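Q: Second attempt. The first request was missing the SMILES, so the protein and 2-acetamido-2-deoxy-beta-D-glucopyranose are both included now.
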Amino acid sequence: MPGSYVLAVASYLLVLSCIATSSAQQSGIEFDTGARGILEEFYVALDGPGWINRTNWLTNAHYCSWYGIVCDPQNNSSVIEINLDNNGLNGQMKFSIGNLRELRRISLAENDILGRLPPTIQQCKGLTYLNFSNNLLDSVIPPEYGTLDKLEIVDLGQNLLQGSIPSSLGGCADLIYLNLRENRLSGEIPANLGNLTEVVYINMSFNQLTRIPRMGEHMEKLEILDLSNNQLIGMVPETIQEIPNLKHINLSHNDIKVFENFVTFDNDHITCDFSNNSFFCPLNEKELACKATCERHRTVPGIAVASIFALVIGLTAGIVFVNTLEKARIREESGVVEDEDDF
Ligand SMILES: *[C@@H]1O[C@H](CO)[C@@H](O)[C@H](O)[C@H]1NC(C)=O
Ligand SMILES: *[C@@H]1O[C@H](CO)[C@@H](O)[C@H](O)[C@H]1NC(C)=O
Ligand SMILES: *[C@@H]1O[C@H](CO)[C@@H](O)[C@H](O)[C@H]1NC(C)=O
Ligand SMILES: *[C@@H]1O[C@H](CO)[C@@H](O)[C@H](O)[C@H]1NC(C)=O
Ligand SMILES: *[C@@H]1O[C@H](CO)[C@@H](O)[C@H](O)[C@H]1NC(C)=O
Ligand SMILES: *[C@@H]1O[C@H](CO)[C@@H](O)[C@H](O)[C@H]1NC(C)=O
Ligand SMILES: *[C@@H]1O[C@H](CO)[C@@H](O)[C@H](O)[C@H]1NC(C)=O
Ligand SMILES: *[C@@H]1O[C@H](CO)[C@@H](O)[C@H](O)[C@H]1NC(C)=O
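A: Got both inputs this time. The predicted holo structure:
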């Protein structure tokens, strides 16, 4: 039994290598073994015949000339980019996209890709750009992505991604831009994201995230933090309030109760939105960060009291004004010298 198994595997491998060799010979151009095969699988799995643009795909033309494919001509035609945004791609990514080891950029946004985010992409160690936004992906974010330490841009917004955000993402040391907006991500935001020292933009709005960790101390470049429309509870940690370059922070539409050790944001350089929370307001509005509207639960009586107060002031001022005019007129008519005891 073991003998015949080994034999079977050996002959299978032999067949595979023959196929690879013959396809390389066909095209007459030297390329890294298997790239064409993977792209063929890619085409079939994602409904190639239905694509908007499929110029040269599966023809005898070299795969480096297929629409959306960019190769490195200096290096055995390895595929370094796949750019097929908004091209009618439809289906699941079940093939080993990770075998395109030299891939640096993959952009498949605005298609109808279903199912799992491909975990094998973690084999593309030089990947810098990953854009799967606006598809129908409904898996978790593979923790393996955290090993991609050259990643700079990650856009996974507008999918159906679920589960919690893997704490391993804190390992993407070069990450500048992280967009996870409009998914179904839940649980706590992992504290390890605080290790993203290069990050400038984070948008996790419209998910079901529950807690902001103590992060921020090392996020010196962070400018935009949008965590609006989640289910965040508890405190805004002091560490978030101390991010030096923050320009925009949106925590609206959550259930945040209080700022930990309140520190004022620099009002001149920052836009904030803390509306639609249940802030406990120990401080007056002027002191509260960035003119946040401090949503007290009893705003209606508050407004009523203010209106009555305004009305009283207004009426009083009106009466005094009319009274003064009347007196001035009388004085003018009678030529009486002004009397200091008028009031
Ligand atoms: C497809 O892309 C190629 C190369 O960019 C372009 O020349 C061609 O006009 C496009 N075809 C369609 C149908 O958009
Ligand atoms: C060229 O490709 C090989 C494997 O395909 C890879 O190991 C190597 O790093 C690449 N070199 C450059 C300069 O990209
Ligand atoms: C291209 O591939 C050949 C054969 O696999 C190898 O000898 C050569 O070093 C490769 N060239 C580069 C630039 O990686
Ligand atoms: C991702 O692709 C979409 C569609 O082309 C584009 O609008 C969006 O800006 C891209 N995201 C990033 C971060 O480049
Ligand atoms: C990343 O963050 C976690 C939690 O904040 C911390 O324990 C860990 O040491 C950090 N790792 C690195 C490599 O900085
Ligand atoms: C974050 O994403 C939401 C939802 O798509 C969007 O409305 C908002 O403008 C984004 N925030 C920032 C600061 O870009
Ligand atoms: C904050 O986010 C909400 C949506 O989540 C949006 O409606 C609002 O305009 C944002 N605030 C600012 C100041 O951008
Ligand atoms: C708070 O949310 C409610 C309903 O979701 C909405 O009617 C109201 O305008 C929001 N207030 C602010 C300040 O965004």
